[in-house]
Amino acid sequence: MNSLKPKPDDSEQDIEKYSVSGVILAGGANSRFNGRNKAFINIAGRSIIENAYSILKSLFKQIIIVTNQPEKYAEFNADIATDIFSIKSSLTGIHAGLFYAKYPFSFVAGCDMPFLNKELIEALAKEIKPHLDVIIPETPKGLEPLCAVYSKKMLVSIEGKIKAKNFYIKSILNKVKTKRVSEKFLRRYDKDLISFFNINSPEELEKAETFLK
């Protein structure tokens, strides 16, 4: 069942916020954590989802959390959305976020990225142009689709891929107007590119804790 649960606006007034939706994908299977929800793992005394929410809330006018466990995110002053397609993947999560977005562009992040950098995200938002479909960082490891900006116009292309059972996000990029943001540009704001570190295993959690030390 698809749902969108709006929460009242914060009392905070910030006229500098971008007319962009911030989307957090919180629907992973967490199979390598024995079902433990990665979003609520604490790093430096704060859960990953709290950190991501706080950063995106400070930048964007709408925050959407995409999850198939909406009850777990009721504490957040965000719109809670569930996947529209029954198959679970990052691409279906992006689709749900764009579907419910109020604004023409959305910044999308995974819920397992503990070191998101506000300045880098803001720099990506400033690269938005009406003719673009995707603004995506490119690091030495490749493209970073879960720390990127997507146009709502992408919905049709994404739906086509999902219906064709092609859930590889990068397969869309060559067929739409994509701006690849260079490593040199990214390092101006995040010199170690730590924003793109994500936690998919207990070993990566240990590595994140080592970073902090």
Can you offer a commentary on this structure?
The protein is of the alpha/beta class. It has one domain: Spore Coat Polysaccharide Biosynthesis Protein SpsA, Chain A, CATH 3.90.550.10. 27% of the residues lie in helices and 22% in strands. The chain contains 6 helices and 11 strands. Strands 1, 2, 5, 6, 7, 8, 9, 10 and 11 form a 9-stranded mixed beta sheet that branches. A two-stranded antiparallel sheet has the order 3-4. A hairpin with a 2-residue loop joins strand 8 and strand 9. Helix 2 packs antiparallel against helix 4. It is globular and about 45 Å long. The relative contact order is 0.17. About 5% of the residues have low confidence.
Provide a brief overview of the structure.
The chain has six helices and eleven strands. With 213 residues, it is α/β, with parallel strands linked by helices.
Total of DSSP H or I helical runs spanning 4+ residues: 6
| Total individual domains | 1
Can you tell me the CATH superfamily?
Spore Coat Polysaccharide Biosynthesis Protein SpsA, Chain A
Low-confidence stretches: 5-15
Return Rg in Å: 16 Å
Helix and strand pattern: EEEEHEEHEHEEEHEHH
- Strands, count: 11
Whole-number average pLDDT? 89
CATH topology term: Spore Coat Polysaccharide Biosynthesis Protein SpsA, Chain A
Q: Look at the helices and sheets and give the structural class.
A: alpha/beta
Largest sheet: 9 strands, mixed
Taking the alpha carbons of the first and last residues, their distance comes to: 43 Å
CATH architectural group? Alpha-Beta Complex
Strand content: 15-25%
The coarse silhouette is: globular
Question: What is the percent of helical residues?
Answer: 25-40%
Q: Report the CATH C-level class.
A: Alpha Beta
